[in-house]
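Each letter names a residue; the fold follows as tokens. Both lines appear below:
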Amino acid sequence: MNAQELLDKIKQLPNKPVDVPTAPPVELVAMVVRWGRHLKQWKATTLADFACVSLSTVERVERGDKVSDEALDRIAQALGYERGAFTTPRLPIGPEMAAEQMIETYGHLEPVAVAPMKTHKAIRDAAKCQAYLIHRPEVPDTYDADIANLGEWLDLGSFILSDMIEDSTPSERGRRDLYNDVLACVAELERRGLTVLSGVMAAPQPGLPDWKVAIVSVTPRLTDPGAPKRRHVLVDRRCVALPATVMAAA
């Protein structure tokens, strides 16, 4: 059963009594698990390994077949949800509302091409963007200072390479030194067990058609071992939209 078939089936579910708590329908769980796995760009085997369940169990869940509550709880936790997210009875919201919530959650996502942040070109492309977004799911607070340091280096690189600077642009050697300093910061994050990916997202705003945002993904290798081979991340377009007050000022 593909994603569209699951969504159609969710819409066709009969309405349940609104005052009787029930567990989420298996079709909705299947859609959430499938999307959650794809957002992480995990193979089904990777999810099975992290959830400590069999591959066939993951496949059955994604088909909308029934499995044990224990297996669903393990899969929920592997995807970052709380235990019971797929099994705890709750007041039903109806199939139409469930479909709307799925669209609200996933309908604003846009794929952005990324690669390991290990080259001068990657740093240069990020520094030439008008803004940057650092995404760090499941990264412990102990890395806050290191990630903030990376952000400061990107700020500095953007400032130095900005066309708005009236002084002469830095020499080629000066640019290389800047790129190497940023790469040294990235290397330190990777030495401490993180994967750093970057890409550029075209995010045109009203009156700013050339607005671009550097997307920097930072994830722990321990919980996201497939990240170094990732070629795309999904970014919520609303996260790169400028506030209305800024747009008014622009």
Remarks:
- The chain has ten helices and six strands.
- The domain at 3-107 is CATH 1.10.260.40 (434 Repressor (Amino-terminal Domain)).
